[in-house]
Amino acid sequence: MAKINMKTPLVEIDGDEMTRVLWDVIKEKLLLPFVDLKTEYYDLGLKNRDDTDDEVTVKSAEAVKKLGVGVKCATITANTARQKEYNLKHLHPSPNATIRAILDGTVFRKPISVSRIKPSINTWKAPIVIGRHAYGDVYKAAEMEIEGPGKVELVYTRADGTEKRVTVADFKGSGIVQGMHNFDDSIRSFARACFLYAIDEKLPIWFATKDTISKIYDGRFKAIFGEVYETEFKEKCAAAGIEYFYTLIDDAVARVVKGEGGFLWACKNYDGDVQSDMIASAAGSLAMMTSVLVSPSGVFEYEAAHGTVQQHYYRWQKGEKTSTNPAALIFAWSGALAKRAELDNTPDLADFSRRLEKAVIDTIEAGIMTGDLARLSDPPPEKILNSWDFIDAIATRI
Ligand code: NAP
Ligand code: MG
Asked: Can you give the pTM of this predicted structure?
């Protein structure tokens, strides 16, 4: 059989633990037999990030900027326990945070829907997509420990040398302090990315902050979002038949749980981090959540929303064939290939990407699935497979 050609390479970003193990199986069984796969490879395995002083992370993000489309495996964010485990020289920041800071942009997370897996919230009729602002706030904050009594101030030194100050707190004893920031340009491109996505997918768009408490910080988010809507997207939203809805974050959370789903929920960075795990779990499984980073310059990085599935990896190391769900990892590849196909105008590749996704969904719909889905499946599963046999079952369907 002739393999499907690719015009431009994808940036392939390898990662850690169980997802790294499955990464190779997916390539071997589901991609290489069908596609003449062209990738520019970056190894973001923890050891290599440490050996290269994290330069490989920066280079991988630069490559995504250059080639336009990347696909990323899950990676360990090192902490002191990991430093010991991997004998690391340094504790580098989260690779995802580094990549997001370079590409800016917005992360869209959407559950993979299968009719056998019913959401735990029974009023939900359609998936909720999260649009997470991927720059700044607590992820780019400066923090300080305060040892004892003293005053903490925020000082802004203007380009002309003049100053503006505000007191954060008068410390009577020890404590902590944190300084967050964001840029109007980044918030604006976050808003634009969300409106474009919502119009493209014909989804109503919700946005929420805590502007009643944070009048300047969250107030700015609300104002910019509203301004982008009024000046650039009001008519386009009307033409697409979708509405823009703003509310307070606590009100939004309450409405999400009582609602029918079927909208894009634009979230500030931290809200998106937390709420996407809630949406993923309530929609079924973290392993069924796809994720794509869309940058304002029009580059795309696809990944699974879940982590490296550490506990499964330790069991695999002991020789167990774990039943880790590869669905979101496969959708990261299919998403990246489909985007490549769209940009390069290669319909064969686009068709392959659709077949790959359909094969995953059809396999699960036929009752063949991994352990995480088995307890959620209604009707109950026909077969619960380990990852390797599950991937083989998908390959047969392609
Ligand atoms: P995790 O890898 O997402 O796993 C948490 C739990 O969720 C697992 O123990 C497993 O539950 C379940 N799960 C997640 N993905 C699954 C899958 N594909 N199939 C079946 N079950 C799945 O999160 P974590 O254990 O908190 O983090 C592990 C490492 O991942 C950390 O070092 C963290 O830094 C990193 N991380 C990376 C990313 C990323 O690169 N995007 C994101 C998050 C975390 P059971 O154990 O009950 O089976
Ligand atoms: Mg998270």
From this structure: 0.87
